[in-house]
């Protein structure tokens, strides 16, 4: 019965964790074994008495199998009864657990030490090699404690340390001390003396700085290491025996400083990593435990500023853990003697001056003792979380980017987070106080911004400059934190960068330029998250305008326009207005110039809502009127309320004229409408491989129209759209509303519709909406019917080519199927239709000898995918024979583009 009970408890100890303590009670065991609780208690207590079980005398009482616990804890339990779990835990003899990083960067080191000391019969000599202060002596001492706790050595065994460096000038003394000497061995040796080898018998002898051990002494050691026997100094007759384990340590390369013959006799060399090589988390733990030790010593709470902590964390301690420990002691002592408060408050400037040497001058200039975030040292432990608002913002932005599958949705959320942070910065009391250093920084940043904004002719409000300057100021207080944080999140940060660069190339470029200039001019290193935040702030530049309608607020003074526009945008929930702050004495000509530049930068747009703070609008109206291509609605005496009202209507899609009309009853303001020199609306038709096809597509659209309309349908060169984008001349001549074609030239802000989607009647709404502006309902119905008729595949092929549609389609179908197989991608029906048309046109071009023989970038493609391109070309061999044509290789470039389109 007893055995059964013991077996059950042992099983529970093996299979369950200590924390499931309810299964280790007499009640639980009696229930399982169907025995009376008294009997179970009695048996269990008998086992405790015998030392088989451990008892925790709490309420209820718990019993554990001692051996199982010793195995789990890898230690010896010396008592059988404990008053509480805490007492049990405290009694647990710790050795290597005291070493920070014993389960991390020092795991292998520890394993080697354990192996060396426990190797039968008498352990193996081990050499610890590592930089000064890396923890070699500590490791040697812990190895000894481990041997004690695991009964590898007797409880009476000693740990003897010799620092060979101390005997550098007197090597004979070291030899005498190590091996002992006999009376008269040398002058002053008045009695027989035991050596350290003898003292350490059965224990551990630690020879530190062993490279200082003289060659003669090293040789004397060999004898001992080989046979366990040695002579005392002055007696070469008698042999003495010692049974101690040897641990050596050195800071010098053992291969060059130790005799090869000694090295050969040390089978285990353990390389102890320097502090620089340890993970950040271990550094944190080291700092934490060192401060905790000081707290115990001085019996006071300790607080440390985040900046001071991050500086310690980031600092390269040449003397490794040892130097770190001494620095922390010195810092605490330095603050302690000031006897200022009950607690010890360690500010950044309390660190010894050598910590500041690496700080950039601006960081020092912006340092403000009062605004430092103070943390209780207990919080340093394991704090992986960002500790400052800026880092918290970093963390959140990255988190949103990581979590959101929809990149653009994520971007909006990130912008909101930044907005919240800005609110926080401006409304938290401490940020309203601008120190003189901050003021200097703001002015410098203002200049940098102005130069860059001028270069890109961008309107960035003074308020925005102020906001982002605040970011820099905030950043300069967190450089160290930020750097560390970025290093820990490098991969995700880079990914975010790449995405931003792809989605918002212009904003990304400008953000980088701002950062480069700030770094250059202000002697401060900014980080990659600042680039991300700035790019997010410039995104509007890359975004489409509100139905071609934009708002601009112009006011005199440092920040009036920016404040109104920011507030209005904030409340409208989208970017409707830009604000330009103007000098107080700016001339009307200059204002007009500002507006003109602004319009050029935003072109192509249809309408501008311009709100100004002037009383009279006449002068500005006169000068603006002849300039404008677009309609301008002019409103004076701008206020946040008028901006909101106008902005709201803009968001509803109302045109400028209608908005002015609606605001007429407001008797505070007056308005003017400037009719733009009208640019005709247009649709561009494009085809990647030739103007001819584009022309035919436009003819097809035009012939579908029941009557001529104001809208132009213009065949246009694909290549020049691709290269020039919005800068292309066509966009200043025409108000281009849509592009239709076989391949998207990807002009930002101009919608594109694939011809295939007209044919499959798929997403052709944009075309109907546009044409619908010019036709009445019946006419539009007619247009849609014509389109359906004209845009069937065979009609298109017939229309676009001179070939017999039916015949050529058979060939084309085969080619597309073969290509799909070869390139291992099934095209969607729409893309497939596009490719049908493309290949039909291609065949025609071959017949008409209008083949494409050069394509930019083709050589690189050929170099990379030569094999596949050869195979693709082979797919056309049937057609080549039938029509006696030769399809040139560069044509494959365009074909491949269809397979690159993401169909999902
Ligand atoms: N991993 C660690 N965890 C906790 N404390 C450590 C650790 N490593 C070193 N220390 C502490 O750092 C201090 C310096 O370590 P130690 O004296 O062992 O270095 P060392 O390599 O022997 O230096 P030296 O070569 O200068 O003798 C000691 O107080 C030790 O307790």
UniProtKB/TrEMBL annotation:
One of its GO terms (cellular component) is membrane. It holds the Pfam family PRD. One of its GO terms (biological process) is regulation of DNA-templated transcription. InterPro entries: AAA+_ATPase, P-loop_NTPase, PRD, PRD_sf, PTS_EIIA_man-typ, PTS_EIIA_man-typ_sf, Sigma_54_int, WH_DNA-bd_sf. It comes from the Bacteria. PROSITE patterns: PRD_2, PTS_EIIA_TYPE_4, SIGMA54_INTERACT_4. Residues 99-333 form the Sigma-54 factor interaction domain. Residues 548-683 form the PTS EIIA type-4 domain. CDD domains: AAA. Residues 803-904 form the PRD domain. GO terms for molecular function: ATP binding; DNA binding; transferase activity. The keyword Cell membrane does not apply. Keywords: ATP-binding, DNA-binding, Nucleotide-binding, Transferase. This is PRD domain-containing protein. It comes from Amedibacillus dolichus.
């Amino acid at each position: 019965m007893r055995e059964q009970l013991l077996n059950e408890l042992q099983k529970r100890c093996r299979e369950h964790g200590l924390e499931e303590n309810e299964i280790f009670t007499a009640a639980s065991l009696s229930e399982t074994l169907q025995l009376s609780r008294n009997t179970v208690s009695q048996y269990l207590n008998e086992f405790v008495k015998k030392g088989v079980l451990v008892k925790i005398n709490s309420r209820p009482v718990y019993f554990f199998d001692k051996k199982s616990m010793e195995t789990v804890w890898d230690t010896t339990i010396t008592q059988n009864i404990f008053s509480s779990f805490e007492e049990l835990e405290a009694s647990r003899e710790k050795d290597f657990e005291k070493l920070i990083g014993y389960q991390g960067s020092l795991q292998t080191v520890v394993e080697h030490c354990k192996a060396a000391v426990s190797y039968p019969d008498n352990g193996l000599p081990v050499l610890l090699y590592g930089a000064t202060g890396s923890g070699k002596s500590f490791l040697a001492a812990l190895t000894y404690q481990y041997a004690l706790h695991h009964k590898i050595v007797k409880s009476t065994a000693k740990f003897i340390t010799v620092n060979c460096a101390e005997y550098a000038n007197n090597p004979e003394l070291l030899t005498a001390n190590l091996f002992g000497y006999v009376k008269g061995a040398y002058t002053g040796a008045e009695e027989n003396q035991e050596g350290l080898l003898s003292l350490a018998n059965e224990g551990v002898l630690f020879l530190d700085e062993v490279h200082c051990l003289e060659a003669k002494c090293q040789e004397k050691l060999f004898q001992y290491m080989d046979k366990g026997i040695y002579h005392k100094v002055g007696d070469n007759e008698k042999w003495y025996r010692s049974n101690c384990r040897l641990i050596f340590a050195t800071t010098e390369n053992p291969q060059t400083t130790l005799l090869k013959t000694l090295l050969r006799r040390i089978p285990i060399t353990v390389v102890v990593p320097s502090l620089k090589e340890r993970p950040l988390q271990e550094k944190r733990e080291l700092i934490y435990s060192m401060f905790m030790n000081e707290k115990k010593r001085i019996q006071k709470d300790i607080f440390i500023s985040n900046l001071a902590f991050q500086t310690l964390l980031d600092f390269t301690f040449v003397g490794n853990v040892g130097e770190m420990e001494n620095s922390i002691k010195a810092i605490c002592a330095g603050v302690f003697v000031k006897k200022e408060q009950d607690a010890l408050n360690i500010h950044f400037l309390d660190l010894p001056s050598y910590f500041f040497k690496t700080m950039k001058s601006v960081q020092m200039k912006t340092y403000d003792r009062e605004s430092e975030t103070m943390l209780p040292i207990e919080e340093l432990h394991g704090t992986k979380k960002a500790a400052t608002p800026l880092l918290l913002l970093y963390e959140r932005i990255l988190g949103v980017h990581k979590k959101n599958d929809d990149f653009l949705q994520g971007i909006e959320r990130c912008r909101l987070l930044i907005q919240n942070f800005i609110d926080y910065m401006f409304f938290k009391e401490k940020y309203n106080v601008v120190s003189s250093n901050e003021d200097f920084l703001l002015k410098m940043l203002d200049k940098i911004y102005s130069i860059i904004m001028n270069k890109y002719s961008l309107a960035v409000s003074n308020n925005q400059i102020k906001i982002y300057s605040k970011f820099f100021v905030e950043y300069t207080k967190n450089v160290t934190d930020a750097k560390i944080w970025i290093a820990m999140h490098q991969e995700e940060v880079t990914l975010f960068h790449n995405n931003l660069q792809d989605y918002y190339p212009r904003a990304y470029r400008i953000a980088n330029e701002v950062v480069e200039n700030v770094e250059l001019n202000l002697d401060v290193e900014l980080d990659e998250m600042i680039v991300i935040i700035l790019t997010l702030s410039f995104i509007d530049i890359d975004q489409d305008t509100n139905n071609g309608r934009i708002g601009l607020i112009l006011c005199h003074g440092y920040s009036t326009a920016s404040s109104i526009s920011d507030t209005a945008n904030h409340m409208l929930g989208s970017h409707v207005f830009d604000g330009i702050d103007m000098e107080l004495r700016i001339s009307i000509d200059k204002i007009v110039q500002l507006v003109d530049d602004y319009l050029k930068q935003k072109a192509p747009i249809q309408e501008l809502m311009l709100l100004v703070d002037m009383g009279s609008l006449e002068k500005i109206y006169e000068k603006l009127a002849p300039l404008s291509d677009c309609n301008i609605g002019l409103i004076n005496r701008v206020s946040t309320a008028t901006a909101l009202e106008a902005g709201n209507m803009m968001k509803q899609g109302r045109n400028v004229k209608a908005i002015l009309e609606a605001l007429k009853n407001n008797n505070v303001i007056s308005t003017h409408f400037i009719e733009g020199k009208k640019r005709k609306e247009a649709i561009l038709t494009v085809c990647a491989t030739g103007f001819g096809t584009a022309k035919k597509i436009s003819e097809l659209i035009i012939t579908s129209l029941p009557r001529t309309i104001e809208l132009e349908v213009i065949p246009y060169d694909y290549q020049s759209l691709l290269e020039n984008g919005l800068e292309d001349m066509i966009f200043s001549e025409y108000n281009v509303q849509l592009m239709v074609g076989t391949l998207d030239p990807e002009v930002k802000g101009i919608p594109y519709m694939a011809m295939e989607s007209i044919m499959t009647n798929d997403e052709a709404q944009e075309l109907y909406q546009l044409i619908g502006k010019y036709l009445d309902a019946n006419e539009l119905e007619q247009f849609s019917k014509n389109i359906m008729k004209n845009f069937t595949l065979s009609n298109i092929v017939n229309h676009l080519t001179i070939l017999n549609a039916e015949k050529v389609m058979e060939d084309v179908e085969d080619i597309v199927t073969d290509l799909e197989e070869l390139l291992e991608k099934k095209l969607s029906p729409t893309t497939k239709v596009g490719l049908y048309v493309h290949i039909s046109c291609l065949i025609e071009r071959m017949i008409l000898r209008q083949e494409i023989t050069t394509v930019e970038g083709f050589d690189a493609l050929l170099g990379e995918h030569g094999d596949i391109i050869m195979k693709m070309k082979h797919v056309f061999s049937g057609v080549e024979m039938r029509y006696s044509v030769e399809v040139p290789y560069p044509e494959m470039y365009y074909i491949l583009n269809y397979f690159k389109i993401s169909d999902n």
